[in-house]
Structure formats: structure tokens, C-alpha cells
Amino acid sequence: MGTLDAIDRKLLAELQAEGRVTNVDLASRVGLTAPPCLRRVRALEEEGVIRGYHADLDPSKLGYAITVFAMVSLRSQAEEDLRGFEEHMRGLPEVRECHMLNGEIDFILKIVSHDLQSFQEFLTSKLTPAPNVASVKTSLTIRTAKNEPGVPLG
Fold it and tell me: Start and end of every HTH asnC-type domain (predicted)?
């Protein structure tokens, strides 16, 4: 996509803050009428700038009382092995994020679990024995001071 203009950036900021805003309200907020607003949003979606829309759920209210970050080192960093690990992580619903890193640790994972016992079971039965895993170091989240999705647009 070409360079985003000020209106596109306003559209993105509004949608990032409130994905359920109606097209009419969105248009009003950014100074457009509804038809060109909708065209711009559709173009941003088609270009992949807007990847999707979702609800922000409270994990604790759904029984996921703990969040854990796991630092995973692999035995091999060959591209095929990296892709194999990533594919395996996509199949584990408890793994909410999986990021490849540079440096000593190959991946950092964000994992949700109902409680410590269920996390321990996940760790020993699904993560540690996963193909190519050399070591796993975990840190339990005590408190979250900031959880801001998206990117700064202001």
C-alpha cells in the first residue's frame, strides 16, 4: 500500500480503539461521509493493513487465571526445524503468541492456563517434549501494567 494519509491514520486509530464503531460514526469522527469512509476502510483491509477484528476478552473471567511467558531454546535452528516448531505451536491453543527472537533464546511464547497444575501438565506433556526443544525457561506473570494492542498512531 502507498503512503497512508492523515485520514487513513485517523481511521486506523479509531478502528484500533473501537473496532465495533459503525461506518457512519467512523466517518463522522474522521471528517468524511459514509461512502468514501467505507471505501477507504475496505482498501485498508484489502491491502492487509487491517488484518481483522476481534473482541478483547478477559482471560480470568473465562477461567484462565494465569499467564506464563516461556523462553524456548531449540536444538537446531535450521529453517525446516524453525518452521516445524512454529507449526507445532500453532496447534496448541494455550499458546497465544509465539515470537522468534535473536540471541540466546530462539522463541518466546505467551501461554494462558487455568491454574498452575494445568500449566505444569501443559509444560511437561506438550511443550518440553515438542520436537527439537532443547530447553524451556518459564516466568509466571504476577501483574500486567500495560496491555495495549496494535501500534501507536497518534
Answer: 4-65
